Amino acid sequence: MDDARQPNRVRGNTIRFIWTEGPTKGESHEHVFHDDGSVEYAKVQGRTRPSKYTREKQYAAVKITDDVYAVSYLGSSGYTLTTVLNFRDKSITGFASGAKDWHPVKGRFEVVQ
Prior knowledge:
Low-confidence stretches: none
Shape: globular
Mean pLDDT: 91
Largest sheet: 9 strands, antiparallel
Helix content: under 10%
Order of helices and strands: EEEEEEEEE
Number of strands: 9
CATH architecture: Beta Barrel
Distance between the termini: 25 Å
CATH topology: Lipocalin
Number of domains: 1
CATH superfamily: Calycin beta-barrel core domain
Strand content: over 45%
CATH class: Mainly Beta
């Protein structure tokens, strides 16, 4: 089995999160899940690829089923994003949390080529 922290459906892929509920409702963020375990992310404006990304040293991704993965990382801002990605229906459910607040989040995602 592959490294359970970074399964193949996440590792090495660029995934665009499109938020439908939570503090970033209506926004999209592109996430680049690198093979070395780091993640880069940036807000997307329209369909244009971002020019500048924030890089975090580590993310974790755990395969729940063939189609469902839990993915989490701690941002340098102090916020943790923990999501469940359903590759069958392309939905996201999760939580964004900081030291003093916590928000449920929902959305959809697409793998960017």
